UniProtKB/TrEMBL annotation:
It comes from Novipirellula rosea. This is Uncharacterized protein.
Length: 110
């Protein structure tokens, strides 16, 4: 700790505008508390929801895009271009189409 700086517990009582009882931890938002604790909380169900959204979006793609997208999940771009015989321009255009399709279904965190 820096000289003259004291750490306070989140259970420390604080003055409020309406003079009701409150603790320091109760008066700061979760985001600020996480920043102060250098931790973040992520809901484990968010990852499940994102995975489900990704699967739904992929299944609703046109067949050609779906095949390329599924191959890209486990293989390199050069391997995917080679497997499907795609020139780089067509492959890049397909990647843009895939990204737009995923975005349309709410999949943005890849």
């Amino acid at each position: 700790m820096e000289d003259g700086v004291q750490m306070q517990s989140f259970e420390t009582p604080v003055d409020t505008v309406d003079e009701t009882f409150a603790t320091l931890g109760g008066e700061i938002c979760d985001e600020d508390q996480n920043r102060r604790n250098q931790s973040t909380y992520t809901d484990p169900f968010d990852a499940i929801d994102e995975a489900d959204a990704l699967e739904v979006a992929i299944q609703k793609m046109p067949a050609e895009l779906r095949q390329v997208c599924e191959h890209l999940r486990c293989h390199s771009m050069s391997s995917t271009m080679e497997k499907f015989g795609l020139p780089r321009r067509r492959f890049n255009a397909m990647r843009v189409e895939i990204a737009e399709h995923l975005k349309k279904y709410g999949v943005t965190n890849l």
